[in-house]
Amino acid sequence: MKALLVIDVQNVIVNFKDFRNELINIEKIINDFKSQQLPVIFVRNISGDENNPFYYKSKDSKIYEPLLEYADYTIEKKTPSSFFQTKLENMLRNLNVNQLFITGFNTEFCCMFTAISAFDRGYKVSLIEDATGTVNDANTYEMPGLDIRDFVGTALHWSNTIEVLDFEEYRDKYGKMTNY
User: Fold this and answer.
1) What range(s) does the Isochorismatase-like domain occupy (predicted)?
2) With b meaning 16 or more CB within 10 Å and e meaning fewer, what string describes 93-132?
3) The domain containing residue 124 runs over which residues?
4) pTM, whole model, 2 decimals?
5) I need a labelling partner for 133 at 20 to 30 A (CA). Which of 63, 84, 109, 150 fits?
6) What is the CATH classification number for the domain harbouring 11?
7) How deeply is 37 buried, as exposed, middle or buried, from its count of CB atoms within 10 A (0-12, 13-18, 19+)?
8) Is 49 inside a domain boundary?
């Protein structure tokens, strides 16, 4: 069975900059999974530190309200990997999931770490590149011209272990909805 991970689509990230296109693609994929009655799992990054923007009690750390209603399940994590010291692996096993689709934020941390961790655990992994985003940019890494999302997608694709698709490729290969 397939499952969709929606990683760190939280107010603190979504409100950081214009992620309109990423959110549109994420919502389309969520709706496609819902139409197939496949599980949609939201992952929420949390911290116990009141000074951290992901402080679990803060409004900023909450799941982005317009998408919250779609969550079949929510997992909380404290590291970039959605698997490390969480209930995700047991949940996926109980749901008989063997393929994970990854969307969300931040591409070069939580999405990439989760994709690699999922592969290491034996899952078939598909990252939908343009349904991920990041608050960081080329200046963050002092690498002029760096397109973080494209770089991560290319590195994962070249690994020949993780499938990397854009939304159109996802729709053509896996999508079941007739209107996107």
Assistant:
1) 3-139
2) eebebeebbbbbbbbbbbbbbbbbbbbeeebebbbbbbbb
3) 2-173
4) 0.94
5) 84
6) 3.40.50.850
7) exposed
8) yes
**Is the predicted pLDDT of residue 180 greater than 70, yes or no?**
no
- 180 belongs to a structural domain: no
Identity (one letter) of the amino acid at 62?
K
Q: Which residue has the tokens 């854009």?
A: 166
Number of domains observed in the structure of the chain? 1
Residues 25 and 128: beta-carbon distance below 8 Å? yes
- pLDDT band (50, 70, 90) for residue 178: low
Asked whether residue 178 is assigned to any structural domain, the reply reads no
pLDDT one-digit tens code per residue, 31-82: 999 999 999 999 999 999 999 999 999 999 999 999 999 999 999 999 999 9
Query: For residues 5 and 40, what is the distance between their CA atoms, to the nearest angstrom?
Result: 6
